[in-house]
Design a protein that fits this description.
Strand content: 15-25%
CATH architecture of the domain at 7-74: Orthogonal Bundle
Helix content: 40-55%
CATH class of the domain at 7-74: Mainly Alpha
Order of helices and strands: HHHHEEHEEHEEHEEHEEH
Distance between the termini: 29 Å
CATH superfamily of the domain at 7-74: Integrase, N-terminal zinc-binding domain
CATH topology of the domain at 7-74: Arc Repressor Mutant, subunit A
Length: 249
């Protein structure tokens, strides 16, 4: 399964600089609220909430914001009613897309996603049209600077990782969804700094795109993730280093 879309590297390397901090915190808040409403406000008994809070901390979200989101989810504070959505579609060159969203207005979100796909050379698909191309995985991302990647790979696999993908500047560690926290904890015990740890939809196979189509696809992914209602976007496109460099210019 090595070779996951390098789009993740763009998000980790430049996403924080490009995104509005307030928008990022809004997305994190929505995930915490939804996690609480589904499984309760005790992180020890609610895996989704535990992961959501950890992700918020990874992104330097203030503790008071996290606590307020938990209270909104539990009903102690007033909050909006959010619906989970997974929209499936296609991008330029037939790239498969999964768009995960949390929305207080289903029709608005569908229309916004459809408009961006249409303008970007893509289209919405039917339910189930591309989900089968992805597997649910845990994904831990590390900054590879000053790391012995060979030793790290052995440590990660020993801790329960299924696959380790070493790229220039970063490392992706894949786990079974239920093993994500265990592997993260094992790495942290070894004082290995974690950039992010989250559940993702990893493509079973990747497709290669010619440069123009690849750049169009990267821009499309970025526009989708800029939508307030969109939490995550996954694709099966494999971007070359030259494409990423041109996009980041």
């Amino acid at each position: 399964m090595s070779g996951h879309s390098k789009w993740s590297s763009i998000k980790h390397q430049k996403g924080v600089a490009d995104a509005k901090r307030g928008q990022l915190f809004t997305k994190l808040t929505r995930e915490i609220i939804t996690a609480v409403r589904q499984g309760g406000s005790n992180p020890e008994a609610n895996v989704r909430l535990r992961l959501a809070v950890q992700k918020a901390r990874d992104n330097n979200m203030p503790l008071e914001n996290i606590e307020r989101a938990i209270k909104r989810g539990s009903g102690e504070l007033e909050g909006v009613t959010l619906t989970e959505m997974v929209l499936e579609g296609y991008g330029p060159g037939g790239v498969a897309l999964l768009v995960q969203a949390l929305s207080d207005n289903h029709n608005r979100t569908v229309q916004e996603v459809r408009n961006i796909l249409s303008r970007g050379g893509g289209s919405l698909g039917e339910n189930g049209s591309v989900t089968w191309l992805f597997d649910s995985k845990g994904l831990i991302t590390l900054d590879a600077t000053d790391l012995d990647t060979e030793a790290l790979t052995l440590q990660a696999i020993d801790a329960g990782a299924e696959d380790v993908n070493v790229e220039d500047g970063y490392v992706e560690i894949y786990t079974r969804p239920e093993a994500l926290e265990t592997v993260r904890a094992a790495l942290e015990q070894r004082k290995i700094p974690i950039t992010s740890a989250e559940l993702c939809m990893a493509p079973k196979t990747m497709i290669e795109l010619e440069e123009k189509t690849a750049l169009q696809t990267v821009k499309l992914l970025h526009k989708l993730e800029e939508l307030d209602d969109v939490q995550c976007v996954f694709s099966n496109a494999n971007f070359s280093d030259s494409v990423l460099e041109k996009y980041q210019e």
